[in-house]
């Protein structure tokens, strides 16, 4: 009986030592879990202390970082003085030609209504002879004559567009000269004379006239104190006669 107990104890001791020396394999890592939910918002912090002005010069950069509350909008200030006028810019490029106007001309070209209500001329008498007394002054050339309302050979301007016109003349000579501005629209002719004794005599005159269609305007020479030698003078002389429409009558 004692031998059986001893054998059982020996068997148990050998089994205990065998368990200590044996080791199992490591297990696999588990899968990562799902992300957790976001946390609740934190509590608002307390309001900071107001800025305190320190003694001495303020830090300009620090002052810029201190943003105060927006003030109310101020009232509009007075208008400032007008600035200086700038220099005139360069001349721009000419624009493209405009479309043909309406109307018609004797040469077959079209003419707009605005062009049909224009009139201007400038005629030049360059003869050295003295203009005959009490006769209409005629001219040798026209610098401008649009649209042919002035006849240089007869000296007549004939109104085509009723309206208000301005006429003037200038003459130069080395003797005294007298000229009248005459018109069917005038009850009396307008006379101008120059009797100065200078080397060159300059005479000018002009008037604004209201003309109806068909009324004429012209210049004529007259005698008022000139000598016979003045009438026979053949030194250089020149008379320029101008006229143009200021504005037509209302249609």
Automatic annotation (TrEMBL):
<keyword id="KW-0325">Glycoprotein</keyword>
<dbReference type="GO" id="GO:0006958">
    <property type="term" value="P:complement activation, classical pathway"/>
</dbReference>
<dbReference type="InterPro" id="IPR008983">
    <property type="entry name" value="Tumour_necrosis_fac-like_dom"/>
</dbReference>
<feature type="signal peptide">
    <location>
        <begin position="1"/>
        <end position="18"/>
    </location>
</feature>
<feature type="compositionally biased region" description="Gly residues">
    <location>
        <begin position="33"/>
        <end position="42"/>
    </location>
</feature>
<dbReference type="InterPro" id="IPR050392">
    <property type="entry name" value="Collagen/C1q_domain"/>
</dbReference>
<keyword id="KW-0180">Complement pathway</keyword>
<feature type="region of interest" description="Disordered">
    <location>
        <begin position="69"/>
        <end position="124"/>
    </location>
</feature>
<keyword id="KW-0379">Hydroxylation</keyword>
<keyword id="KW-0732">Signal</keyword>
<dbReference type="GO" id="GO:0005581">
    <property type="term" value="C:collagen trimer"/>
</dbReference>
<keyword id="KW-0399">Innate immunity</keyword>
<feature type="domain" description="C1q">
    <location>
        <begin position="114"/>
        <end position="251"/>
    </location>
</feature>
<feature type="compositionally biased region" description="Low complexity">
    <location>
        <begin position="102"/>
        <end position="119"/>
    </location>
</feature>
<dbReference type="GO" id="GO:0045087">
    <property type="term" value="P:innate immune response"/>
</dbReference>
<keyword id="KW-1015">Disulfide bond</keyword>
<keyword id="KW-0391">Immunity</keyword>
<protein>
    <submittedName>
        <fullName>Complement C1q subcomponent subunit A-like</fullName>
    </submittedName>
</protein>
<keyword id="KW-0677">Repeat</keyword>
<dbReference type="Pfam" id="PF00386">
    <property type="entry name" value="C1q"/>
</dbReference>
<keyword id="KW-0964">Secreted</keyword>
<feature type="region of interest" description="Disordered">
    <location>
        <begin position="26"/>
        <end position="50"/>
    </location>
</feature>
<keyword id="KW-0272">Extracellular matrix</keyword>
<dbReference type="InterPro" id="IPR001073">
    <property type="entry name" value="C1q_dom"/>
</dbReference>
């Amino acid at each position: 009986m004692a031998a059986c107990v001893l054998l059982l104890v020996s068997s148990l001791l050998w089994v205990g030592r065998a368990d200590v020396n044996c080791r199992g394999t490591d297990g696999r890592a588990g899968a990562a879990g799902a992300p957790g939910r976001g946390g609740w918002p934190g509590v608002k912090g307390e309001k900071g202390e107001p800025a305190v002005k320190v003694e001495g010069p303020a830090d300009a950069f620090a002052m810029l970082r201190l943003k105060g509350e927006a003030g109310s909008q101020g009232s509009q200030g007075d208008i400032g003085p007008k600035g200086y006028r700038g220099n005139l810019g360069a001349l721009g490029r000419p624009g493209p030609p405009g479309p043909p106007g309406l109307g018609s001309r004797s040469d077959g070209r079209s003419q707009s209504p605005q062009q049909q209500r224009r009139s201007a001329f400038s005629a030049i008498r360059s003869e050295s002879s003295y203009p005959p007394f009490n006769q209409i002054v005629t001219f040798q050339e026209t610098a401008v004559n649009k649209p042919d309302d002035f006849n240089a050979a007869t000296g007549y301007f004939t109104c085509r567009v009723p309206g208000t016109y301005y006429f003037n003349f200038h003459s130069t000579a080395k003797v005294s000269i007298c000229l009248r501005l005459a018109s069917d629209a005038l009850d009396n002719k307008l006379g101008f004379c120059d009797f100065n004794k200078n080397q060159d005599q300059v005479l000018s005159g002009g008037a604004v006239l209201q003309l109806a269609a068909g009324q004429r305007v012209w210049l004529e020479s007259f005698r008022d104190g000139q000598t016979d030698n003045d009438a026979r003078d053949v030194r250089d002389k020149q008379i320029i006669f101008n006229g143009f429409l200021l504005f037509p009558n209302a249609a």
